[in-house]
Amino acid sequence: MESLPNNWADIQPDIIYQTLADMLVSFSKKQIRLGQRYDQNNKHLKAIQNGRVPPDGSIGLVPSEAEGYDLKSKVLGSGGDYRYYGKFIEGVLHFPGVKTSH
Amino acid sequence: MNAVTLTNHKIWDELAKILEPIDINHLTTQHLESCNYKIRGYWDSNNKFYEEIAFIHPICAELVSRSLGTNIINNHPTSHWIKLKFLLKADLSASENNLVSDDGDDEIGELTLILDTNQKVIDENWLIDVESPFVVAKSPPDLQHSA
Fold it and tell me: Given A21, A54, B20, B33, which residue has the most CB atoms within 10 angstroms?
């Protein structure tokens, strides 16, 4: 299993990667484009690497309140005003390219 | 195009009324407690990464803005939310030793809380003065991975 790169530019669509927190993740082409466009310092990738965290006060993956999605990536501080959403498909957290404010 | 003015619209009174019962101090204190008075992972405005920001002094919060909104995913409204922004200050009434600077600057930063329609906190963001004497900001050991 490939390790999740720390840079959006090194991520390929629909390949399953393993995060530092031992979670399996994959990304659509649209999600990679969003990452390259809005997350040039790869902060959301660092949050995704961090795995599940308590809902308050930590960067990482936290429960999504949006229906149809399981977790969202949380960045705090600069760049922390939006989230990317992921849903589990056969044990892999897939990011289809959905972004909202918080 | 005829622009509709909302200057005296009842929506603003309604917003104030909806938020009136929320105990601001309770909300922020509860959130700080839930975070254990620490932020784990924070990027400052220069995109410098801090592993941890610890609040080492009692804090008081002042509401500085409130808003209502709706998230829309793929053209479908998915969730309504209330956004409250607070100014965080050192609570100097609780202070025994005087950490405050000569000019009486007690501001630490800002906390933004997002509440769902049941007024439960569902998200947050922070803007912290990492140089403040009221916080301890820890950088990661390897500064090469600062972002």
Answer: A21
